Amino acid sequence: MIDFSTLPRPKSAAERQRDEDQRVTSQVADDLKRRREWNRKSVALTLVRQAEWRYTNAGTSTLQLRGERNDGRPIAITWFAPEHYTQEQINAVYNQLTKGSRTTVEGYWGSSARDARLRTTFVAQFIQIGDTPRVP
Fold first, then answer.
1. Segment 107-116, tens digit of pLDDT
2. Alpha helices of the chain — where are they, by DSSP H?
């Protein structure tokens, strides 16, 4: 015979909402912690074209930036949107990244081998567009 008293009771809507809020808060804190740990360098640049919107195979939203550093050297940047960002928040960042905008990115240099070539890309953890506050 089944002892139904040992089964967990269904959660109320308020309890489910509280659990979801705690999960999101924890996710935001973990993401910021990881981004701060990987934040090693800072690069100021001017975008030479509009940002490109892409998705990884895992479904993560990314922005690909092409710019010119203050010393005139070209730079390629990848920014991975935080999982907790809504589509509207990502669009707000994307819409500000227009050709000619002054941007400062903080992150680290990463490399990958493609087409038998080693490519170096700056992986941005934080982006600051003009005088606006930086975003993760």
1. 998 887 777 7
2. 13-38, 87-96
| Domain annotation covers residue 110 | yes
The answer to whether the beta carbons of residues 134 and 106 sit under 8 Å apart is: yes
Question: Which pLDDT value is given to residue 118?
Answer: 79
The pairing of beta strand 61-69 with beta strand 52-55: antiparallel
Q: The domain containing residue 62 runs over which residues?
A: 36-129
Residue with tokens 């490399």: 111
Question: Residue ranges of the chain with pLDDT lower than 50?
Answer: none
Residue count of the chain, please give it: 136
Q: What is the CATH number of the domain that holds 73?
A: 2.40.50.140
